[in-house]
Amino acid sequence: MNKGVKMVRDIMLTKCPACRQESMFAARAVDLAHSLKMHRHCPHCGQDFIPEPGFYFGAMYFSYAINVALMVTFGVGVEVLFSPERIWITLASIFVPTLLLSPWNFRISRAIMLYTMGGVKRR
């Protein structure tokens, strides 16, 4: 498998950027009560997942880009495929999937931030 494809797969699965064995998060995304809890270090290799205080503030830009892509995709898709007569149907088709995918968006944004800006350092 291509190196870039592997990296995208590991980002989507939120694997450690150093060893790519363990998840960055303590629970699965569907466990809404604990889905946002992140490990401090990789349980397998010791990679630091929080390189500095406030590191993940930059992840909001990745989150914003993902949300814009989701909203445009769902909005245009519903308009093109179904041409609803009422605007609230289009708005609901945009906001409901965005809200349902928000835990996934949070996790992916943090993974992208760590993979692109965090560097790989062992503890």
Give your account of this protein's structure:
The protein is mostly helical and 123 residues long. It has one domain (3-117). Helix content is 52%, strand content 0%. The chain has four helices and no strands. The model has no long low-confidence stretch (mean pLDDT 91).
Summarize this structure briefly:
With 123 residues, this protein is mainly alpha-helical.
The helix content is 40-55%
Rounded to the nearest angstrom, the distance between the terminal CA atoms is: 29 Å
How many distinct beta strands? 0
**Overall pLDDT level:** 91
Q: H/E series, N to C? A: HHHH
Tell me the fraction of residues in β-strands, as a range: under 5%
| Biggest sheet features | none
Contiguous helical run count: 4
Low-pLDDT residue spans: none
Specify Rg, calculated over alpha carbons.
17 Å
**What's the number of structural domains?**
1
Task: Note the overall shape.
Answer: elongated
Query: Helix/strand/pairing class, anyone?
Result: mainly alpha
